Amino acid sequence: MALNKKTEFPAPIQSFASFAKLLSHPARIAILEVLAKRQTCVCGEIVDELPLAQSTVSQHLKELKEGGLVKGEIEGTSSCYCINWENFNQMSDAFILSLNTIKEFQRENGSCC
Fold first, then answer.
1. Domains and CATH numbers, the chain
2. How far is residue 72's CA from residue 75's CA, in Å, rounded to a whole number?
């Protein structure tokens, strides 16, 4: 069985990869946009704005919640979700920092091809 080598990389690179994985599906980006527009949202309202089944939206919300980008509470028969702005800002800052680091290497070293 192969060993997971993720922990061998620096924390900023791990954070960049985690954030990129959370944003790797267009549905999750669309969900974040809906939540950002509305501040809070009931899952049914998200479904109304996306071309996806409720179960699919729920699965993507679960991924976003487990990844720390979304907070959610169950209120009776519905769930209310919002963006976890503290985590979102930390992850997006690390993502941008990593991209800028990569761009800086290109500026310093030019293009190889």
1. 24-99 (1.10.10.10)
2. 10
Neighbours of 32 (CB within 10 A): 18
98 in Cβ contact with 16 (< 8 Å): yes
Question: What parts of the chain have a pLDDT lower than 50?
Answer: 1
Instruction: Kindly report whether the global pTM for this prediction surpasses the value 0.90.
Output: no
Which residue, among 90, 40, 37, has the nearest Cα to 61 in the 3D structure?
40
CA 40/CA 81 separation, integer angstroms = 6
91 Cβ contact partners less than 8 Å away, ≥ 6 residues apart: 15, 18, 19, 22, 68, 69
The pLDDT value recorded for residue 113 is: 66
